[in-house]
Amino acid sequence: MKAMEDQVVQEEQGYQDDEESLFQDIDLLQKHGINVADIKKMKSAGICTVKGIQMTTRRALCNIKGLSEAKVDKIKEAANKLIEPGFLTAFEYSEKRKMVFHITTGSQDFDKLLGGGIESMAITEAFGEFRTGKTQLSHTLCVTAQLPGAGGYPGGKVIFIDTENTFRPDRLRDIADRFNVDHDAVLDNVLYARAYTSEHQMELLDYVAAKFHEEAGIFKLLIIDSVMALFRVDFSGRGELAERQQKLAQMLSRLQKISEEYNVAVFVTNQMTADPGATMTPVISWVGSLLEGCPSLTFQTVWLGLCQPAVRCWASQPAPAGWSSGDTQTDRPSPGVPWQMLLGQRF
């Protein structure tokens, strides 16, 4: 028994050591001739780590008030001294991938379908019709992300960005009862923000990055419910479609970089749209074409069906595909929706 406890302690210690090595504070640039004022300007723009500089283009850095092209070149040069921009062997990268963790959904079958749960350093998108459990799944993840998991995952805090005013703390209390955890502790570990416009939603991501840096390794999950709601309001008609998709791609790229920079899981919900020209069977698809519009992102998409009780998953990453379906319902997730599951690979 003691040997097992020692093994768990060693796994958690190794996990924490990996987390600490992931973050290189931007203040390290002072040793390479970058003044404190310029560092504060970058922090105000949500760039708080050396890796964050590497992920930001020179053009974006020049857009920060007070940073000239000469300063940006000097900052980039200093960052490259701290982070080797060279290649890794496949073995070295496989060791780096060991830092990736999975957050349970509360359903063993659903976790198996997703390859272990909601994955860190990636974006998981859940889309479906009204009343299919997208927001309920978001609430469930607020609780399950705080629970210790496999591989030494210690649990952590959650940030919830609400765009539709659907967040309900009382629902977290109900879900906390299922997992036998303290209500107040669960609520204290969820940081909530209400977004009112697509621009406000983007601005909140700068705060998210700053918070992840301030409490490095503490936050494990970022939830946006829903990611497209404000974009549909702010950009209407085909004339603004190109601009909307460009802004959306920028936001998704920002989310992907945040997930990789701070080793957190990102979970977003999305809405559905119907084709009014369809005659026999209604043609439905998710809004914004998140997966198709950003093929370079590490994406996993989950469709929650209403008319057909099914969950379908697509991934724009080379993950193994599998499926399970049938009439038997061996597990009932906490949202209360009986899910029969089907998994397919999407490239």
UniProtKB/TrEMBL annotation:
Alphabetically list the UniProt keywords: ATP-binding, Cell cycle, DNA-binding, Meiosis, Nucleotide-binding, Nucleus
- Gene3D superfamilies hit by this protein: 5' to 3' exonuclease, C-terminal subdomain (1.10.150.20), P-loop containing nucleotide triphosphate hydrolases (3.40.50.300)
- Residue ranges constituting the RecA family profile domain according to the UniProt record: 99-272
Q: Does the keyword Transmembrane helix apply?
A: no
> Where would you find this protein in the cell?
Nucleus
Q: Which Pfam families match?
A: HHH_5, Rad51
SUPFAM superfamilies per the UniProt record, alphabetical: P-loop containing nucleoside triphosphate hydrolases (SSF52540), Rad51 N-terminal domain-like (SSF47794)
Q: Which InterPro entries match?
A: Dmc1, DNA_repair_Rad51/TF_NusA_a-hlx, P-loop_NTPase, Rad51_C, RecA_ATP-bd
Task: Report which superkingdom the organism of origin falls in.
Answer: Eukaryota
A Gene Ontology term for the protein's cellular component: site of double-strand break
Record family assignment = Belongs to the RecA family. DMC1 subfamily.
The record ties this protein, via PANTHER family, to: MEIOTIC RECOMBINATION PROTEIN DMC1_LIM15 HOMOLOG, RECA/RAD51/RADA DNA STRAND-PAIRING FAMILY MEMBER
Please state what the protein is called.
Answer: DNA meiotic recombinase 1
- Origin species, per record, is Vombatus ursinus (Common wombat)
